[in-house]
Amino acid sequence: MPAGRRRHPRPHDPGELPLRSVATALLLSADGQSGFHAPTIADFFPDPVLFAGTWFEFGRIQFVRMVVAVFLALLFVLVARRATLVPGRLQSGVEMLLDFVRTGIAEDILGKKDAKRFVPLLTTLFVSVLGFNLTGVIPGLNIAGTSRIGLPLVLALWVYVVYLGAGVRKQGVGGFLRSSLFPPGVPPFLYVLLTPVEFLQVFVLRPATLALRLMANMMAGHLMLVLCFSATAYFLLEAAPAMKAFGVLTFASGMVMTLFEVFVAVLQAYIFAILTAVYISMSLTEEH
Amino acid sequence: MADSTLILAAADAVSGNIATLGYGLAVLGPGIGLGILIGKTVEGMARQPEVSGQLRTTMFIGIGFVEVLGLLGLITGFIFQ
């Protein structure tokens, strides 16, 4: 090669230079992240996009939550506005969901008479928890709206206020405290042990576990999926040729885990709603 | 001299977060609990299929209570890092 051409290297076509520099930049940035990366808790705290540092931080998780909220509102408004006597496929699906909450959760636990008042609460809880959970497996969103404590906490506090309010309205403050803190049929000296435990149970543990259970389930599910799929990417793209077969294994287990996550999302929505119903019915029943 | 390098090597080998062990321990109890809970429910369903709906509901409520114990182990691993 002549010396002159080496000193002034010119790309063959005008597009090559930017392309080459982009490729180098990509390679360099990829070089910084090569190797296998296990998922961490930082996955749930991505950098905010808007309003960073304020109370109205808007990032990936808030975006997912907003998408779900808009979707659920649209779904129910559309189905309700176009409701017909003979339901179509979408309407009968939604009706099946609502009917399941009414009969399978509310009336089953609370009884027909009391269930009526709490069906709206339970339906809202079930449907929204289900929606926010399912985003964990929807491609493109890929993180559950409930995988950070804020949303489960709000829902749990709502349940907290409702079951305390229901108990107080039914039995009065004194009656509610007596029936929940001093369960009858126990030798009196045992109340020394039992009352603090019951107090913790009613006023702290019920809402706390309600929120934590949901959050931890979704968080664990997300970590599981990320582990499977990032291991797949590592095995297929970077590992030694002999190890590539493991990529197929981790990919298959990622797929199975995705299906399992769908199951967990439904199960957690069910458990959240049914425990709410149980707590309300515990507040409503007067001990004899 | 050789001993100290051995100890150093051993210390190097177990580096990392001990919380990973904690979660393994934390799931033992709830695992046994879930096994007993679901097994007994299946037993009850086999004996009296006509109340299986009631049993299933109660089982899910129980699962909620048991499951949160294991999940507390997961959470504490992240909180006390």
Helix content of chain A: over 70%
What is the N-to-C order of secondary-structure elements of chain B (H for helix, E for strand)?
A: HHHH
CATH homology group of chain B: F1F0 ATP synthase subunit C
| Percentage of residues assigned to helices of chain B | over 70%
The shape of chain B, in one word, is elongated
Count of runs of 4 or more consecutive helical residues of chain A: 7
- Specify Rg of chain A, calculated over alpha carbons: 27 Å
**Largest sheet geometry of chain B:** none
Question: Can you tell me about this structure?
Answer:
The complex is a heterodimer of chains A (288) and B (81). Chain A is mainly alpha-helical and 288 residues long. Chain A has one domain (57-284). Chain A has seven helices and no strands. Chain A has helices spanning 3-7, 16-32, 60-81, 89-134, 150-181, 191-237, 244-284. Chain A is globular. The model of chain A is unreliable at 1-12 and 16-32 (pLDDT under 50). Chain B is mainly α. The longest helix of chain B is centred in the C-terminal third of the chain and has 28 residues, at 52-79. The radius of gyration of chain B is 21 Å and the shape is elongated. Chain A binds chain B through residues 41, 108-109, 209, 212-213, 216-217, 219-220, 267, 270-271, 274-275, 278, and chain B through 53, 57, 60-61, 63-65, 67-68, 71-72, 74-75, 78.
